[in-house]
Fold this sequence. Notes:
The complex is a heterodimer of chains A (178) and B (631).
Chain A: H1 11-14, H2 25-39, H3 49-70, H4 72-82, H5 97-112, H6 119-146, H7 150-177
Chain B: E1 21-25, E2 30-37, E3 40-43, E4 53-54, E5 56-58, E6 66-67, H1 69-74, E7 82-84, H2 94-101, E8 117-119, E9 122-124, H3 126-145, E10 151-156, H4 162-174, E11 179-184, H5 185-197, E12 201-208, E13 213-221, E14 224-233, H6 238-252, H7 261-277, E15 283-289, E16 297-303, H8 304-328, E17 338-342, H9 349-359, H10 372-384, E18 394-396, E19 403-407, E20 411-416, E21 424-430, E22 440-446, E23 456-463, E24 476-482, E25 488-494, E26 500-504, H11 513-525, H12 527-561, H13 564-581, H14 586-599, H15 601-616, H16 621-630
Parallel strand pairs in B: 1-10, 10-11, 12-17, 14-18
Antiparallel strand pairs in B: 1-2, 2-3, 2-4, 5-6, 5-7, 8-9, 12-13, 13-14, 15-16, 19-20, 19-22, 21-24, 22-23, 24-25, 25-26
Protein name (chain A): Co-chaperone protein HscB homolog
Family (chain A): Belongs to the HscB family.
Keywords (chain A): Chaperone
Amino acid sequence: MSDNTLLTENYFQLFKLPMQFELDITKLRTAYRELQRQFHPDRFAHASDQERRIAMQKTTQINEAFQTLKQPLKRAQYMLNLKGMQPDPQVTPPLEPEFLMTQMELREALEGISQQADPSMVLMGFNDTVSQHIQQFLQQFSTLFQQEKLAQAQTCVNQLHFFYKLQEEAEKLEETLL
Amino acid sequence: MALLQISEPGQSTAPHEHRLAAGIDLGTTNSLVATVRSGIAETLADENGLHLLPSVVAYLCDEMPLVGHEAQDRANHDPHNTIASAKRLLGRGLDDVKTLGSQLPYDFIEESGMPRIRTVAGELSPVQISADILRSLKQRAESSLAGDLTGVVITVPAYFDDAQRQATKDAAQLAGLNILRLLNEPTAAAVAYGLDQQAEGIFAIYDLGGGTFDISILRLHQGVFEVMSTGGDSALGGDDIDRMIAEWLLQQAEIGENASPHLLRQILGAARLAKEQLSHHEQADIQLILEDEQKTPWQIQLSREKFDALVDPLISKTLLPCRRALRDAGLNPEDIQEVVMVGGSTRVPRVRERVGEFFQHEPHVDIDPDKVVAIGAAIQADILAGNKPDNDMLLLDVVPLSLGIETMGGLVEKIIPRNTTIPVAKAQDFTTFKDGQSAMAVHVLQGERELITDCRSLARFELRDIPPMVAGAARIRVTYQVDADGLLSVSAQEQTTGAHSEISVKPSYGLSDNDIEGMLRDAMTSAQQDAQARTLREQQVEADRVINALRAALKADGHHLLKRSEFENIQQHLDSLLHVTRGDDPQVIKQAIDKLDQVTQEFAARRMDSSIRKAMQGHHVEDFQNEDAAS
């Protein structure tokens, strides 16, 4: 890509949203559609090749920005990145034993689901538990970020990855149960 | 007088000029062309008043090819030169054609690359044959609109992969058409309904054709159509319903295994007829002439109730992809506001009933399910041609199948997951595996499975001239870009030196609908086998890494940091790891890696000390303290 310049300084400004973790998804979606209407390559069906190429690049960035802000985990990491924090798997501090215990328990529970009498029901309960954990950590992230406790907020995001990974694996299991 | 002529994007510089644009549904069995006239989208008929053009081309010696009904009439007496279903071959490789070849009576040319068929008019590719169909539709449109077409929108199945889309685009170009956009068939159907009714909310598009099934979930808001997910089963359609009835007839008439092909054709024909009757009547009368010596006429009644029971299992099979598409979109059936039916097979009342029950909504059937796709394409073409500058309609499609790259050990790493809104670009950084590695192969794949052998290979290329560096030091950024038509291009660049390599994925071959469906289905059933195979590959890759690193270390420092006995001990464990790596038990490999790790620990520690000593030469202790303070 030759033209990598962003439309604005950051994704929040792009969608004219305040830079905060709690986000009005409806507002985000409306702003997204508005930008798509202006920049989508279909709006340039009769323009020059160069204009169409630029339209495609801009739309690509708009899509990326939308996906980043829409998903809480990506949004959280993005906000930390804007503050100069980078996740480095090499220097991730060791996770607390308590957290690891929870992870191991959840993993064991997930692995045992297919042997249950009614795996679909058990899986639903499992998903609820994981969702609750995720909600709790997202809440915690929001608070830490507001208090500018960035290192702790990064740890919180690192931990969230584990729960999302669990959710992904639960989805795979669900596929086999469908 | 205006000094400058300024126009907004999408707006014509001459506002009153109406540009002629058309929508084309290039189907496997039938094709259609539609346009918007006086604000109404309608399909165009040929001089005999027929709208559907059979997708059949007959090639003649020294004459223009015949397309459509005339071609179809020649199929029986000139099968080698009468080509039907060319769409099934579009964007396919010779290997795919070989699997299909047994069902198709054509004379394929055994060469690498794109498949070609030998006819009296020469060797023809599926792209050329499709172009002949498109040319016929172009003529029809231009003669009935009395003018040249400025541009067209051509529809493709949502499940069409990159190579198939590219091949469709090439065919349009060959036919002299200016293609404004490739549009997914279900999206086109949604447009046909959405604009008529100014609908808002979430649509499910249920498309059951002769041989394929597609489901798409779309969000429609103020003229923006956002595809949320797609799915399907391309080995399922109206032909299977006919087969079900035929099997039932074979049972009822007590016809054994050895029925003649002629009788089977008769029974299949009767089955199709009965299916059509049952769309309007409660009962169908079926008559057959049995092949005994008396040519006994035989007849039976098929009630609607019995028919429903016969097709129910097939309908249930279509509801599975529906459930999956909903899940991919993060929705429940009750979130769906409207259900649109597309494809001839949705005329079966039981299909409508079951789909209605599943989505808890009466499905829309007001637009002829054969024409709805072409009509939607015509509406989009009209807008893209610039005839409706005030129209806000916008279609946001998705990538139907995940796009990935081959990584160590024959695994696929997904770069763009399925159902990502296009256009999209994703970059991922990779590194070299060996010291001094000067080239890296990039293998582009499409599919949901984790092993390369289970995904479709789209393209391979090589990034060369990587400067010599130690393993892991090079930073190679691979970028996947999918444009608004769903077409992929891939580039790779070494970040420190700028060595660059790029490819647009071209239709050397592509995935078949069956492959895509099969791959998706396999991914579901064999997720567990995959996990097992994945663990094995991961352990093998890890073992390779450990072996390479240890060999390099032994070569560099083994002689001066190890005693002879220590060296031999390490060598022995290295050999045993090499041995078990060839086996298929990930657990055993892991144990051998762990053991080797243990016996080399002391060696590693000595090397570390030695390199720290080297690095510290010439430094003062304060330097390190300062750095500590800064970090």
